[in-house]
Design a protein that fits this description.
The protein is 40% helix and 20% strand. With 495 residues, the chain is α/β, with parallel strands linked by helices. Helix 13 links the parallel strand 15 and strand 16. Helix 4 runs antiparallel to helix 7. The chain binds nicotinamide-adenine-dinucleotide.
Length: 495
Protein backbone atom coordinates (compact mmCIF):
# COMPACT_ATOMS: atom_id res chain seq x y z
CA UNK A 1 0.00 0.00 0.00
CA UNK A 2 2.93 2.33 0.84
CA UNK A 3 4.35 2.10 -2.67
CA UNK A 4 0.98 2.83 -4.26
CA UNK A 5 0.50 5.87 -2.04
CA UNK A 6 4.02 7.12 -2.54
CA UNK A 7 3.48 7.06 -6.33
CA UNK A 8 0.05 8.68 -6.00
CA UNK A 9 1.45 11.47 -3.78
CA UNK A 10 4.23 12.11 -6.28
CA UNK A 11 1.74 12.24 -9.16
CA UNK A 12 -0.78 14.42 -7.30
CA UNK A 13 1.64 17.03 -6.03
CA UNK A 14 4.31 17.42 -8.72
CA UNK A 15 4.56 21.03 -9.88
CA UNK A 16 2.00 22.20 -7.33
CA UNK A 17 2.51 24.62 -4.44
CA UNK A 18 0.13 24.70 -1.53
CA UNK A 19 0.41 28.28 -0.39
CA UNK A 20 -2.28 30.83 0.30
CA UNK A 21 -4.39 32.13 -2.57
CA UNK A 22 -4.59 35.89 -2.13
CA UNK A 23 -5.54 38.51 -4.69
CA UNK A 24 -5.39 36.05 -7.57
CA UNK A 25 -2.01 34.52 -6.83
CA UNK A 26 -0.25 31.85 -4.82
CA UNK A 27 1.64 33.45 -2.01
CA UNK A 28 3.72 32.27 0.91
CA UNK A 29 3.09 33.32 4.50
CA UNK A 30 4.66 36.62 5.50
CA UNK A 31 6.77 34.76 8.07
CA UNK A 32 7.58 31.94 5.65
CA UNK A 33 6.33 29.16 7.96
CA UNK A 34 4.73 25.95 6.71
CA UNK A 35 3.16 22.81 8.09
CA UNK A 36 3.01 19.33 6.66
CA UNK A 37 -0.12 17.46 5.71
CA UNK A 38 -0.14 13.67 6.03
CA UNK A 39 -1.73 10.75 4.18
CA UNK A 40 -3.59 8.93 6.98
CA UNK A 41 -3.69 5.58 5.13
CA UNK A 42 0.08 5.19 5.32
CA UNK A 43 1.16 8.04 7.63
CA UNK A 44 3.39 9.56 4.95
CA UNK A 45 3.83 13.31 4.41
CA UNK A 46 2.08 14.65 1.32
CA UNK A 47 3.07 18.29 0.99
CA UNK A 48 4.16 21.43 2.82
CA UNK A 49 1.43 24.01 3.23
CA UNK A 50 1.83 27.70 4.08
CA UNK A 51 0.90 28.43 7.66
CA UNK A 52 -1.02 31.70 7.84
CA UNK A 53 -1.03 34.21 10.69
CA UNK A 54 -2.92 37.43 11.27
CA UNK A 55 -0.70 39.33 8.79
CA UNK A 56 -1.75 36.95 6.03
CA UNK A 57 -5.40 37.28 7.06
CA UNK A 58 -4.99 41.09 6.90
CA UNK A 59 -3.61 40.80 3.37
CA UNK A 60 -6.44 38.53 2.28
CA UNK A 61 -9.17 40.67 3.85
CA UNK A 62 -7.70 43.76 2.24
CA UNK A 63 -7.67 42.02 -1.16
CA UNK A 64 -11.27 40.89 -0.65
CA UNK A 65 -12.36 44.40 0.38
CA UNK A 66 -10.63 45.91 -2.66
CA UNK A 67 -12.29 43.45 -5.05
CA UNK A 68 -15.68 43.98 -3.41
CA UNK A 69 -15.62 47.77 -3.65
CA UNK A 70 -13.94 48.00 -7.05
CA UNK A 71 -15.94 45.40 -8.91
CA UNK A 72 -17.86 42.52 -7.34
CA UNK A 73 -20.53 44.54 -5.52
CA UNK A 74 -21.36 46.33 -8.76
CA UNK A 75 -21.77 43.22 -10.90
CA UNK A 76 -25.11 41.84 -12.03
CA UNK A 77 -26.15 38.39 -10.82
CA UNK A 78 -25.85 37.33 -14.45
CA UNK A 79 -22.21 38.31 -14.73
CA UNK A 80 -21.37 36.76 -11.36
CA UNK A 81 -23.10 33.56 -12.42
CA UNK A 82 -21.11 33.58 -15.67
CA UNK A 83 -17.81 33.90 -13.75
CA UNK A 84 -18.77 31.13 -11.32
CA UNK A 85 -19.74 28.85 -14.22
CA UNK A 86 -16.42 29.56 -15.92
CA UNK A 87 -14.76 28.41 -12.73
CA UNK A 88 -16.84 25.23 -12.58
CA UNK A 89 -15.85 24.43 -16.16
CA UNK A 90 -12.21 24.58 -15.05
CA UNK A 91 -12.96 22.44 -12.00
CA UNK A 92 -14.87 19.90 -14.07
CA UNK A 93 -11.81 19.35 -16.23
CA UNK A 94 -9.84 18.48 -13.06
CA UNK A 95 -12.23 16.26 -11.13
CA UNK A 96 -9.76 13.37 -10.94
CA UNK A 97 -6.91 15.60 -9.82
CA UNK A 98 -9.00 17.24 -7.09
CA UNK A 99 -10.44 13.91 -5.95
CA UNK A 100 -6.98 12.34 -5.70
CA UNK A 101 -5.69 15.24 -3.59
CA UNK A 102 -8.70 15.06 -1.30
CA UNK A 103 -8.53 11.28 -0.97
CA UNK A 104 -4.83 11.38 -0.05
CA UNK A 105 -5.34 14.25 2.38
CA UNK A 106 -8.36 12.81 4.22
CA UNK A 107 -8.23 9.04 3.65
CA UNK A 108 -11.62 9.21 1.93
CA UNK A 109 -12.11 6.43 -0.68
CA UNK A 110 -11.20 7.87 -4.07
CA UNK A 111 -14.56 6.89 -5.55
CA UNK A 112 -16.41 8.87 -2.86
CA UNK A 113 -14.04 11.81 -3.27
CA UNK A 114 -14.84 11.86 -7.00
CA UNK A 115 -18.57 11.99 -6.29
CA UNK A 116 -18.07 14.75 -3.74
CA UNK A 117 -16.05 16.88 -6.18
CA UNK A 118 -18.96 16.46 -8.60
CA UNK A 119 -21.32 17.61 -5.84
CA UNK A 120 -19.12 20.65 -5.16
CA UNK A 121 -19.44 21.72 -8.77
CA UNK A 122 -23.20 21.21 -8.67
CA UNK A 123 -23.53 23.41 -5.58
CA UNK A 124 -21.54 26.19 -7.21
CA UNK A 125 -23.71 26.00 -10.31
CA UNK A 126 -26.88 25.89 -8.23
CA UNK A 127 -26.00 29.07 -6.34
CA UNK A 128 -25.08 30.81 -9.60
CA UNK A 129 -28.56 30.02 -10.95
CA UNK A 130 -30.40 30.89 -7.74
CA UNK A 131 -28.73 34.29 -7.54
CA UNK A 132 -30.00 34.97 -11.06
CA UNK A 133 -33.51 33.91 -10.13
CA UNK A 134 -33.64 36.09 -7.02
CA UNK A 135 -36.33 38.76 -7.02
CA UNK A 136 -36.81 41.89 -4.96
CA UNK A 137 -39.91 43.64 -3.65
CA UNK A 138 -41.87 46.80 -4.20
CA UNK A 139 -43.99 47.84 -1.20
CA UNK A 140 -47.17 49.71 -2.17
CA UNK A 141 -47.38 53.01 -0.20
CA UNK A 142 -50.16 54.95 -1.89
CA UNK A 143 -49.37 57.43 -4.62
CA UNK A 144 -46.95 59.80 -2.87
CA UNK A 145 -44.17 57.40 -2.04
CA UNK A 146 -42.20 54.78 -3.86
CA UNK A 147 -40.70 52.13 -1.56
CA UNK A 148 -38.62 49.21 -2.66
CA UNK A 149 -36.21 46.71 -1.11
CA UNK A 150 -32.66 46.17 -2.24
CA UNK A 151 -30.95 42.96 -1.12
CA UNK A 152 -27.30 43.83 -0.85
CA UNK A 153 -24.29 41.64 -0.17
CA UNK A 154 -22.64 42.19 3.21
CA UNK A 155 -19.17 42.70 1.76
CA UNK A 156 -16.29 40.46 2.87
CA UNK A 157 -17.35 37.02 4.09
CA UNK A 158 -14.98 35.12 6.38
CA UNK A 159 -15.51 31.38 6.11
CA UNK A 160 -13.92 28.66 8.24
CA UNK A 161 -14.10 25.00 7.27
CA UNK A 162 -13.58 21.55 8.86
CA UNK A 163 -11.70 18.61 7.37
CA UNK A 164 -14.37 15.93 6.87
CA UNK A 165 -15.84 17.11 3.55
CA UNK A 166 -13.34 19.82 2.60
CA UNK A 167 -14.21 20.60 -1.00
CA UNK A 168 -17.90 19.91 -0.70
CA UNK A 169 -18.33 22.34 2.21
CA UNK A 170 -16.14 24.86 0.39
CA UNK A 171 -18.66 24.67 -2.49
CA UNK A 172 -21.59 25.16 -0.10
CA UNK A 173 -20.11 28.23 1.50
CA UNK A 174 -18.15 29.93 -1.25
CA UNK A 175 -20.87 29.39 -3.84
CA UNK A 176 -23.54 31.14 -1.76
CA UNK A 177 -21.30 34.04 -0.70
CA UNK A 178 -19.97 34.79 -4.19
CA UNK A 179 -23.28 34.37 -5.96
CA UNK A 180 -24.88 36.81 -3.52
CA UNK A 181 -22.19 39.37 -4.37
CA UNK A 182 -19.78 39.04 -1.44
CA UNK A 183 -16.08 38.46 -1.70
CA UNK A 184 -14.53 35.69 0.38
CA UNK A 185 -11.65 34.89 2.69
CA UNK A 186 -11.74 31.18 3.44
CA UNK A 187 -9.69 29.31 6.03
CA UNK A 188 -9.66 25.55 5.32
CA UNK A 189 -8.88 23.05 8.05
CA UNK A 190 -5.19 22.44 8.68
CA UNK A 191 -6.03 18.73 8.43
CA UNK A 192 -7.28 18.87 4.83
CA UNK A 193 -6.11 21.94 2.92
CA UNK A 194 -5.01 20.49 -0.41
CA UNK A 195 -8.12 20.14 -2.59
CA UNK A 196 -9.44 23.56 -1.56
CA UNK A 197 -6.13 25.28 -2.25
CA UNK A 198 -6.01 23.69 -5.69
CA UNK A 199 -9.63 24.59 -6.44
CA UNK A 200 -8.88 28.21 -5.53
CA UNK A 201 -5.88 28.23 -7.87
CA UNK A 202 -8.15 26.96 -10.64
CA UNK A 203 -10.30 30.09 -10.24
CA UNK A 204 -7.47 32.25 -11.63
CA UNK A 205 -8.89 32.48 -15.15
CA UNK A 206 -12.50 32.82 -14.04
CA UNK A 207 -12.85 35.04 -10.98
CA UNK A 208 -11.44 38.57 -10.72
CA UNK A 209 -8.40 38.89 -8.44
CA UNK A 210 -9.30 39.22 -4.77
CA UNK A 211 -12.86 37.90 -5.09
CA UNK A 212 -11.87 34.51 -3.66
CA UNK A 213 -9.02 34.23 -1.16
CA UNK A 214 -7.84 31.19 0.77
CA UNK A 215 -5.54 31.43 3.78
CA UNK A 216 -4.22 28.14 5.13
CA UNK A 217 -3.18 27.59 8.71
CA UNK A 218 -4.21 26.65 12.21
CA UNK A 219 -7.34 27.67 14.08
CA UNK A 220 -5.89 29.96 16.70
CA UNK A 221 -3.28 31.44 14.35
CA UNK A 222 -5.31 32.04 11.18
CA UNK A 223 -8.93 31.22 12.05
CA UNK A 224 -9.27 33.41 15.14
CA UNK A 225 -7.83 36.56 13.47
CA UNK A 226 -10.34 36.09 10.66
CA UNK A 227 -13.25 35.94 13.11
CA UNK A 228 -11.94 39.01 14.98
CA UNK A 229 -11.16 41.11 11.91
CA UNK A 230 -12.83 44.55 11.84
CA UNK A 231 -13.23 44.51 8.10
CA UNK A 232 -15.06 41.16 7.84
CA UNK A 233 -18.80 41.73 7.41
CA UNK A 234 -20.21 38.21 7.64
CA UNK A 235 -18.89 35.02 9.26
CA UNK A 236 -19.71 31.46 8.44
CA UNK A 237 -18.22 28.57 10.38
CA UNK A 238 -18.52 24.81 10.10
CA UNK A 239 -16.90 22.74 12.82
CA UNK A 240 -17.21 21.69 16.43
CA UNK A 241 -19.49 23.21 19.07
CA UNK A 242 -16.67 24.50 21.34
CA UNK A 243 -14.96 26.36 18.48
CA UNK A 244 -18.35 27.50 17.15
CA UNK A 245 -18.98 29.20 20.49
CA UNK A 246 -15.64 31.02 20.23
CA UNK A 247 -16.52 32.13 16.71
CA UNK A 248 -19.90 33.39 17.91
CA UNK A 249 -18.24 35.32 20.77
CA UNK A 250 -15.86 36.97 18.30
CA UNK A 251 -18.81 37.74 16.02
CA UNK A 252 -20.67 39.31 18.95
CA UNK A 253 -17.72 41.59 19.65
CA UNK A 254 -17.87 42.91 16.12
CA UNK A 255 -21.70 42.70 15.84
CA UNK A 256 -21.06 40.51 12.80
CA UNK A 257 -23.79 38.16 11.52
CA UNK A 258 -22.74 34.54 11.82
CA UNK A 259 -23.81 31.20 10.42
CA UNK A 260 -22.79 28.15 12.45
CA UNK A 261 -22.90 24.57 11.22
CA UNK A 262 -21.85 22.42 14.17
CA UNK A 263 -21.85 18.86 15.40
CA UNK A 264 -24.47 16.17 15.82
CA UNK A 265 -25.49 12.99 17.60
CA UNK A 266 -28.25 12.05 15.24
CA UNK A 267 -30.74 9.25 15.91
CA UNK A 268 -32.04 6.67 13.47
CA UNK A 269 -35.39 5.48 14.84
CA UNK A 270 -36.56 2.00 13.84
CA UNK A 271 -40.26 1.52 14.49
CA UNK A 272 -41.56 -2.07 14.76
CA UNK A 273 -43.41 -1.95 11.42
CA UNK A 274 -40.30 -0.94 9.45
CA UNK A 275 -38.76 -2.91 6.61
CA UNK A 276 -36.00 -4.16 8.90
CA UNK A 277 -33.57 -5.27 6.21
CA UNK A 278 -33.79 -1.92 4.46
CA UNK A 279 -33.55 0.00 7.74
CA UNK A 280 -30.38 -1.89 8.70
CA UNK A 281 -28.67 -1.25 5.36
CA UNK A 282 -29.66 2.42 5.45
CA UNK A 283 -28.50 2.94 9.04
CA UNK A 284 -25.16 1.21 8.35
CA UNK A 285 -24.47 3.61 5.46
CA UNK A 286 -25.72 6.45 7.66
CA UNK A 287 -22.99 5.84 10.23
CA UNK A 288 -20.12 4.23 8.30
CA UNK A 289 -19.93 6.45 5.19
CA UNK A 290 -16.81 8.61 5.45
CA UNK A 291 -15.66 6.33 8.31
CA UNK A 292 -18.26 7.90 10.57
CA UNK A 293 -16.74 11.37 10.19
CA UNK A 294 -19.98 13.06 9.13
CA UNK A 295 -21.66 15.76 11.18
CA UNK A 296 -25.01 14.14 10.40
CA UNK A 297 -23.91 10.50 10.92
CA UNK A 298 -26.64 8.48 12.64
CA UNK A 299 -24.50 7.56 15.60
CA UNK A 300 -27.47 6.36 17.68
CA UNK A 301 -29.87 3.68 16.44
CA UNK A 302 -33.07 3.68 18.51
CA UNK A 303 -34.84 0.39 17.90
CA UNK A 304 -38.17 -0.87 19.18
CA UNK A 305 -37.71 -3.71 21.68
CA UNK A 306 -39.90 -6.09 19.61
CA UNK A 307 -37.56 -5.93 16.62
CA UNK A 308 -34.27 -5.40 18.46
CA UNK A 309 -32.93 -8.92 17.77
CA UNK A 310 -34.00 -9.00 14.13
CA UNK A 311 -32.66 -5.50 13.50
CA UNK A 312 -29.32 -6.13 15.24
CA UNK A 313 -28.70 -9.27 13.17
CA UNK A 314 -29.49 -7.41 9.97
CA UNK A 315 -27.38 -4.41 11.02
CA UNK A 316 -24.34 -6.59 11.78
CA UNK A 317 -24.75 -8.27 8.39
CA UNK A 318 -24.88 -4.84 6.72
CA UNK A 319 -21.78 -3.79 8.69
CA UNK A 320 -19.86 -6.55 6.89
CA UNK A 321 -20.11 -4.36 3.79
CA UNK A 322 -17.99 -1.66 5.47
CA UNK A 323 -14.48 -3.04 5.78
CA UNK A 324 -11.17 -1.23 5.96
CA UNK A 325 -9.43 -0.91 2.63
CA UNK A 326 -6.97 1.16 0.65
CA UNK A 327 -8.79 4.41 -0.24
CA UNK A 328 -7.06 4.47 -3.61
CA UNK A 329 -8.57 1.13 -4.68
CA UNK A 330 -11.95 1.02 -6.36
CA UNK A 331 -14.55 -0.71 -4.22
CA UNK A 332 -13.12 0.39 -0.87
CA UNK A 333 -15.88 1.49 1.48
CA UNK A 334 -14.03 2.35 4.69
CA UNK A 335 -10.87 4.43 4.62
CA UNK A 336 -8.79 5.41 7.64
CA UNK A 337 -9.72 8.15 10.06
CA UNK A 338 -8.31 11.44 8.83
CA UNK A 339 -5.52 11.99 11.36
CA UNK A 340 -3.86 10.39 14.34
CA UNK A 341 -5.61 12.39 17.09
CA UNK A 342 -8.92 11.43 15.53
CA UNK A 343 -7.91 7.76 15.69
CA UNK A 344 -6.89 8.16 19.34
CA UNK A 345 -10.18 9.89 20.14
CA UNK A 346 -12.24 7.09 18.58
CA UNK A 347 -10.21 4.43 20.34
CA UNK A 348 -10.63 6.25 23.66
CA UNK A 349 -14.43 6.35 23.21
CA UNK A 350 -14.49 2.61 22.57
CA UNK A 351 -12.76 2.14 25.93
CA UNK A 352 -15.24 4.52 27.55
CA UNK A 353 -18.15 2.52 26.08
CA UNK A 354 -16.71 -0.72 27.50
CA UNK A 355 -16.24 0.90 30.93
CA UNK A 356 -19.79 2.26 30.86
CA UNK A 357 -21.10 -1.28 30.44
CA UNK A 358 -22.18 -1.28 26.78
CA UNK A 359 -21.55 -4.52 24.88
CA UNK A 360 -19.36 -4.59 21.78
CA UNK A 361 -21.05 -6.84 19.24
CA UNK A 362 -18.84 -5.93 16.27
CA UNK A 363 -15.29 -4.61 15.82
CA UNK A 364 -13.75 -2.52 18.55
CA UNK A 365 -10.13 -2.54 17.37
CA UNK A 366 -7.76 -1.11 14.80
CA UNK A 367 -7.28 -3.65 12.03
CA UNK A 368 -3.80 -5.16 11.95
CA UNK A 369 -1.53 -6.27 9.11
CA UNK A 370 -1.08 -3.90 6.21
CA UNK A 371 -3.27 -1.30 7.96
CA UNK A 372 -0.87 -0.95 10.91
CA UNK A 373 0.80 2.18 9.57
CA UNK A 374 -2.47 4.04 8.97
CA UNK A 375 -5.25 5.48 11.10
CA UNK A 376 -7.72 2.67 10.38
CA UNK A 377 -10.42 1.59 12.82
CA UNK A 378 -12.88 -1.27 12.43
CA UNK A 379 -16.57 -0.48 12.21
CA UNK A 380 -17.74 -0.95 15.77
CA UNK A 381 -21.19 -1.64 17.12
CA UNK A 382 -22.22 -1.23 20.76
CA UNK A 383 -25.40 -2.89 21.97
CA UNK A 384 -27.10 -2.43 25.38
CA UNK A 385 -26.42 1.30 25.25
CA UNK A 386 -28.20 3.63 27.62
CA UNK A 387 -28.89 7.08 26.20
CA UNK A 388 -27.24 8.67 29.26
CA UNK A 389 -23.89 7.07 28.52
CA UNK A 390 -21.14 9.32 27.17
CA UNK A 391 -20.92 7.23 23.99
CA UNK A 392 -24.59 8.10 23.34
CA UNK A 393 -24.33 11.78 24.26
CA UNK A 394 -20.96 12.93 22.87
CA UNK A 395 -19.95 13.24 19.23
CA UNK A 396 -17.33 10.53 18.60
CA UNK A 397 -16.91 11.23 14.89
CA UNK A 398 -15.85 7.71 13.97
CA UNK A 399 -17.32 4.39 12.76
CA UNK A 400 -19.01 3.67 16.08
CA UNK A 401 -22.71 2.80 16.33
CA UNK A 402 -24.75 2.72 19.55
CA UNK A 403 -27.88 0.56 19.64
CA UNK A 404 -30.49 1.71 22.16
CA UNK A 405 -33.94 0.13 22.66
CA UNK A 406 -37.28 1.85 23.28
CA UNK A 407 -40.71 0.59 24.29
CA UNK A 408 -43.17 2.97 22.63
CA UNK A 409 -43.49 6.04 20.40
CA UNK A 410 -43.24 8.56 23.26
CA UNK A 411 -40.05 6.99 24.56
CA UNK A 412 -38.54 6.94 21.06
CA UNK A 413 -39.12 10.67 20.63
CA UNK A 414 -37.88 11.46 24.12
CA UNK A 415 -34.65 9.56 23.48
CA UNK A 416 -34.25 11.04 20.00
CA UNK A 417 -34.42 14.56 21.45
CA UNK A 418 -32.42 13.85 24.59
CA UNK A 419 -29.05 15.14 23.33
CA UNK A 420 -27.69 18.68 23.04
CA UNK A 421 -27.62 18.40 19.26
CA UNK A 422 -30.35 18.56 16.62
CA UNK A 423 -28.77 18.21 13.22
CA UNK A 424 -30.55 15.27 11.59
CA UNK A 425 -32.60 12.14 12.21
CA UNK A 426 -33.69 9.02 10.37
CA UNK A 427 -37.06 7.37 10.76
CA UNK A 428 -37.82 3.84 9.53
CA UNK A 429 -41.50 2.97 9.33
CA UNK A 430 -44.11 1.87 6.79
CA UNK A 431 -46.79 3.93 8.47
CA UNK A 432 -47.36 7.40 7.04
CA UNK A 433 -48.81 8.78 10.27
CA UNK A 434 -45.86 7.59 12.36
CA UNK A 435 -43.49 9.08 9.78
CA UNK A 436 -45.14 12.51 9.76
CA UNK A 437 -45.64 12.62 13.53
CA UNK A 438 -42.01 11.70 14.17
CA UNK A 439 -40.89 14.25 11.57
CA UNK A 440 -42.79 16.91 13.50
CA UNK A 441 -41.75 15.76 16.98
CA UNK A 442 -38.01 15.26 16.47
CA UNK A 443 -36.09 18.49 16.90
CA UNK A 444 -33.60 18.41 14.03
CA UNK A 445 -32.88 20.32 10.83
CA UNK A 446 -33.15 17.29 8.51
CA UNK A 447 -35.47 14.31 8.84
CA UNK A 448 -35.02 11.35 6.53
CA UNK A 449 -37.80 8.78 6.32
CA UNK A 450 -36.73 5.35 5.05
CA UNK A 451 -33.50 6.89 3.80
CA UNK A 452 -30.49 8.66 5.24
CA UNK A 453 -28.05 11.37 4.13
CA UNK A 454 -30.49 12.60 1.49
CA UNK A 455 -30.02 16.15 0.29
CA UNK A 456 -28.54 18.20 -2.48
CA UNK A 457 -28.61 21.62 -4.06
CA UNK A 458 -31.80 23.37 -3.02
CA UNK A 459 -32.47 21.30 0.10
CA UNK A 460 -31.70 23.31 3.26
CA UNK A 461 -29.19 21.78 5.64
CA UNK A 462 -28.44 22.96 9.18
CA UNK A 463 -29.10 22.37 12.82
CA UNK A 464 -31.53 22.89 15.65
CA UNK A 465 -30.22 23.42 19.21
CA UNK A 466 -26.41 23.19 19.60
CA UNK A 467 -26.05 21.96 16.01
CA UNK A 468 -26.05 25.50 14.74
CA UNK A 469 -27.66 28.60 13.35
CA UNK A 470 -28.60 29.10 9.72
CA UNK A 471 -29.05 26.86 6.71
CA UNK A 472 -26.71 25.92 3.86
CA UNK A 473 -27.35 24.51 0.39
CA UNK A 474 -30.62 26.31 -0.34
CA UNK A 475 -32.28 29.43 -1.63
CA UNK A 476 -32.46 30.85 1.89
CA UNK A 477 -28.64 30.59 2.13
CA UNK A 478 -28.39 33.41 -0.41
CA UNK A 479 -30.58 35.49 1.94
CA UNK A 480 -28.12 34.77 4.75
CA UNK A 481 -25.41 36.42 2.64
CA UNK A 482 -27.41 39.56 1.92
CA UNK A 483 -29.04 42.28 3.99
CA UNK A 484 -32.10 44.19 2.97
CA UNK A 485 -32.24 47.92 2.48
CA UNK A 486 -35.59 49.72 2.32
CA UNK A 487 -35.46 52.67 -0.08
CA UNK A 488 -38.19 55.28 0.55
CA UNK A 489 -38.71 57.92 -2.11
CA UNK A 490 -41.12 60.84 -1.78
CA UNK A 491 -42.73 61.62 -5.13
CA UNK A 492 -43.20 65.27 -6.12
CA UNK A 493 -46.54 66.56 -7.30
CA UNK A 494 -46.84 66.27 -11.07
CA UNK A 495 -45.68 69.40 -12.90
P1 LIG B 1 -13.01 22.23 14.64
O1 LIG B 1 -14.04 23.05 15.32
O2 LIG B 1 -11.91 21.68 15.44
O3 LIG B 1 -12.30 23.10 13.49
C1 LIG B 1 -13.02 23.68 12.44
C2 LIG B 1 -12.23 24.82 11.85
O4 LIG B 1 -12.09 25.84 12.83
C3 LIG B 1 -10.81 24.46 11.41
O5 LIG B 1 -10.52 25.13 10.22
C4 LIG B 1 -9.96 25.01 12.55
O6 LIG B 1 -8.65 25.35 12.15
C5 LIG B 1 -10.74 26.25 12.92
N1 LIG B 1 -10.53 26.77 14.27
C6 LIG B 1 -10.08 26.10 15.37
N2 LIG B 1 -10.00 26.94 16.43
C7 LIG B 1 -10.42 28.15 15.99
C8 LIG B 1 -10.60 29.42 16.63
N3 LIG B 1 -10.32 29.60 17.91
N4 LIG B 1 -11.08 30.43 15.88
C9 LIG B 1 -11.40 30.27 14.58
N5 LIG B 1 -11.23 29.10 13.92
C10 LIG B 1 -10.76 28.05 14.63
O7 LIG B 1 -13.80 21.11 13.86
P2 LIG B 1 -13.21 19.94 12.96
O8 LIG B 1 -12.59 18.94 13.87
O9 LIG B 1 -12.40 20.51 11.85
O10 LIG B 1 -14.53 19.34 12.27
C11 LIG B 1 -15.35 18.42 12.88
C12 LIG B 1 -16.58 19.07 13.44
O11 LIG B 1 -17.27 19.75 12.39
C13 LIG B 1 -17.58 18.07 13.97
O12 LIG B 1 -18.12 18.55 15.18
C14 LIG B 1 -18.65 18.02 12.89
O13 LIG B 1 -19.90 17.59 13.34
C15 LIG B 1 -18.65 19.43 12.42
N6 LIG B 1 -19.25 19.54 11.08
C16 LIG B 1 -20.49 20.12 10.95
C17 LIG B 1 -21.11 20.20 9.70
C18 LIG B 1 -22.47 20.80 9.54
O14 LIG B 1 -22.84 21.13 8.42
N7 LIG B 1 -23.24 20.98 10.61
C19 LIG B 1 -20.45 19.70 8.58
C20 LIG B 1 -19.19 19.12 8.74
C21 LIG B 1 -18.60 19.06 10.00
Amino acid sequence: MKERHSEAIERATTDLRFEHWIDGESTDSADGTTFETTDPAVSMPIASVSSGKSTDIDRAVSAARGAFEAEWRKTTPRSRAKRIREWTTLLRARVDELARLESLDTGKPLEYARDEVGDTIEYLEYYASVAQAHEGAHLPQGTDNHVYIRNEPYGVAGQILPWNYPLNLFGWKVGAALAAGNTVVCKPSEEAPLSITRAAQLSADALPDGVLNVVNGFGTEAGAPLTQHDDVDKLSFTGSVPVGKQVMTAAADGVTPVTLELGGKSPFVVFPDADIEQAATTAAAGIFYNTGQSCDACSRVLVHEDVHGEFTDAFLAATDGWTAGDPLLEGTTLGPLTFEEQHDKVSKYVDIGREEGATIVYGGESPAGEYDDGQFFEPTVFDDVDNDMRIAQEEIFGPIECIITFGDYEEAIELANDVEYGLAAGVATRDATTAHRAAADIRAGSIWVNEYHGGGPGIPFGGFKASGIGRECAKQTIDEYTQSKAVNIALDDPV
